[in-house]
Amino acid sequence: MIEGVLEVSRREVHEVMVQRSSMVVLRLDDSREKLLSTIISSGHSRFPVIGENRDEVVGSLLAKDVLRALTDSPEDKLEIKPLLRPVTLIPETKRLDALLDEFLRGRNHLAVVVDEYGGTAGLLTIEDVLEQIVGEIGDEHDPEQAPELVRQDDGSFLVSAKMRIEDFDEEIGSELDTGEFDTVGGLVIHRLGRLPRRGDSVEAGGWRFEVVSADRRRVKRLRVSRT
After folding, report:
1. Integer Cα distance of 227 and 45 in angstroms
2. Which of 8, 86, 98, 150 is the most exposed place for a label (fewest CB within 10 A)?
């Protein structure tokens, strides 16, 4: 744990943040059903709320506030503006120890990371920072320091969700359509329209991407095979 504390004092938020493409967000104009579906399927307790796009973060919401309002409101569409809490905006270069101190002193435990142009780069929660101190619980599909891409005996590949699509294409000769995402994990999230769970799969560019390792906030590793 001491090593983890020292590591937090050296690292910056961009090194451990949940990337923009992996963020689970709520929208101001989401329907009652959409709000409930996103909250339940993600399992998160805090959410950034956006307007027209992910660069327009208007506040944050606690799942318990939304669920309470959904229960009390007889209307089909829930107005979530009154439930919004202020959102903390931080630069990519902020140190984790400074952010942890800010989290502990305040009541808002979610921060949105902005890049040098003012756009949304990602997010961090207090749990993400504490994980750097106490360590992450792994599983048999998520070995430490695993290579980004490993060829299996059956011809499939085990691929890190953080692997850049251009690197993936170069390694196996594919030509994936990147769209708004940069990583293999971002592609899967985009196709599913939600944060993936273990066992979820999508198809793209003649390849099947199956999630073999994921936690409540991010997809970690995928098995990729020909369709």
Report:
1. 36
2. 86
> Which pTM was predicted?
0.58
Q: Decide: 160 and 22 in contact? Cβ < 8 Å.
A: no
Per residue of the chain (227 residues), give pLDDT as tens. 444 444 566 788 988 888 888 888 999 988 888 888 888 877 788 899 999 999 999 999 998 888 888 777 666 667 889 999 998 999 999 998 888 888 888 878 899 999 988 899 999 988 778 777 654 434 444 444 567 888 887 889 999 888 888 888 888 888 886 555 678 887 887 788 776 778 889 998 899 999 988 765 567 889 999 98
Q: Classify domain 149-226 by CATH architecture.
A: 2-Layer Sandwich (3.30)
Comma-separated ranges of CATH 3.30.465.10 domains in the chain: 149-226
